[in-house]
Amino acid sequence: AAPASREISGLTKVYGILADPIHHVKTPQMLNALVAREGRDGVMVPFHVSSEELPRLVDGLKAMKSLGGFVVTVPHKTAVVDLLDGVSDSARRIGACNVVRREEDGRLIGDMLDGKGFVGGLKAAGIDPKGRSVYLAGAGGAANAIAFAFVEAGVARLTIANRTRAKAEDLAARLADAVPGAPVEIGTADPSGHDIVANATSLGLKAGDALPLDASRLTADQIVAEVIMQPEETAILAAARAKGCRTHPGKPMLVCQLDLMADFLGMRSLGAAA
Ligand code: ATR
Question: Which residues form the Quinate/shikimate 5-dehydrogenase/glutamyl-tRNA reductase domain (predicted)?
């Protein structure tokens, strides 16, 4: 929580988080703590809004001069894109935004940091996907952002495998469209032959979930990474460790993404993360 000593004044920058439902969000606590550490005068509060009312809220926020920006989460990441005045190249390619900054002139500018957070978290752990062969399980919202970030990070090969094959094919086509020559292919449940194996499905969130890929094919030279943050130990990470693989949990994605969000929203001196 924000420190009780923090004074909110007429100069305080206000930041929001747009979500529905919103009771479970933890981003305000984490970003408020960061703002306090940075000695900045800002506060993030929940902006609970339905999909139906999202356009009215976003339009109104353009008029709010004390607004620094806002974080966007489920279910608004896709819908918000068309309501903004501009988005980054990667947000346009992915078709989703999870952070929006309000410029002095009222324009709202969005970016998508989900995938960059994942790749940044890997890099922070000393795992650089550049030039590596990557296997990605999933083709949903999280997988989309991560697939684009892997391609932008310069992987040598990206194999996408998904229960619904058509969604993997659609993602691969959009990747090839956005980044000509993107080394993308469609895979099966077998992740063998890849340096980095990443789970971007929701399998592992619930106890008793099936594995997102054929863990019997993992070999000890592979790195297995997870997007799921809670639980910290998912079945695929446990299976990978049993095979002797190096594993990478979901948490570093969050840590990296908070830094990226804080930079984008001007909550701290740029480059502080470097
Ligand atoms: P998120 O925003 O977390 O990515 P999502 O967009 O709903 O959520 O995507 C969920 C991903 O997990 C998808 O890749 C989904 O596969 P489908 O595209 O075939 O639905 C995958 N997933 C969820 N439940 C699954 C299951 N029981 N078996 C296999 N894949 C599953």
Answer: 130-177
